[in-house]
Amino acid sequence: MAKQFSLGDFLHYTNRRTYSDVQGEVAYLDGAPLRRPFSMPVGQRLVVLIVVIAAAVIGFIFLNSTVLAALRETAQAEQTIATNLSRQASIETIPNMTELINMNDKGVKEAFQASEYTIYDASSENDSEDMILYKLPADMTTDEAAAYYAKGISNLTAPQATKLLVGSWQFVSEHSGVKSMVVRYADFSTADPQVAVQNALQKTGFDPESISDSGVDDSGNTYSLGTLKADDTTCTWKISAVPLDDMYSISKMPEEACYVGIRLTAAQ
């Protein structure tokens, strides 16, 4: 016959320390272990604390070197651009071209020197016989400007480009064919080329009544042109402007900006 197991036999073959309460034929587990405090040994808690601190430090280093660094760089760039834009505008120092049109290159240079401008002569860097001069911002050296121009304005950062363009202008005296002089600069006061043309017209002192044509040419330049007398020389003038983005594609440049060109050509 099969052996019959009684409750006593069952308790004999089980962990007597686990089943501590027997009522009739029912054995209940000992609940004492569940009532003990759930605490981690000091050594293990120290290890966990070290791991948490290490994770926090690594996380901060990663955040600081990526997100926070990018935010700081952006803020610094914006501050530098704002500082550059607060300097004297280029249009405030553009030369009176009616006084220069009858001068030779030497006379033009002497006139600029008398104005105590910092001038960078880039004439030797082009293949023509044209004289190319850059009037620089007051806080920029010729070496720094030369490095920027050599790199190419479109390859500059927005802080670098605004440092170079605010307060500067290019003067070109052309010697091929009809004598012509051109001044080019960036106007950071407006995004409207028509307004930029009006600003230049007012600054140059050209008579608005002398305008013979205006509009937008095939290249997208907003322009006005007319004639004037410089001493005994009859000249044609033309002022044109385009959004600065059309000239230089530079990330984070101020949106309100135009590139302006003023040309004065002596009649043959």
What is shown here, in short?
By secondary structure, this protein is of the alpha+beta class.
Total number of helices? 9
Written as H for each helix and E for each strand, in order along the chain, the element string is HEEHHHHEEHHEEHEEEHE
What is the straight-line distance between the termini?
137 Å
What is the strand tally? Answer: 10
Low-confidence stretches: none
Strand proportion, as a percent range, falls in 15-25%
* General form: elongated
Oligomeric status: single chain
| Biggest sheet: strand arrangement | 3-4-5-6-10-9-8-7
Structural class: alpha+beta
Spatial extent as radius of gyration: 40 Å
Largest sheet properties: 8 strands, antiparallel
Q: Determine the mean pLDDT.
A: 85
Helix content: 25-40%
What does this structure look like?
The chain is of the alpha+beta class and 268 residues long. 38% of the residues lie in helices and 25% in strands. It is built from 9 helices and 10 strands. The strands form 2 sheets. An 8-stranded antiparallel β-sheet has the order 3-4-5-6-10-9-8-7, with helices on both faces. A two-stranded antiparallel sheet has the order 1-2. The longest helix is centred in the first third of the chain and has 44 residues, at 42-85.
Furnish the topology, listing elements before pairings:
Blueprint: H1 7-13, E1 19-23, E2 26-29, H2 32-35, H3 42-85, H4 97-100, H5 105-114, E3 119-121, E4 131-135, H6 142-151, H7 158-165, E5 169-174, E6 180-187, H8 193-204, E7 211-216, E8 222-230, E9 233-243, H9 244-247, E10 258-266
Antiparallel strand pairs: 1-2, 3-4, 4-5, 5-6, 6-10, 7-8, 8-9, 9-10
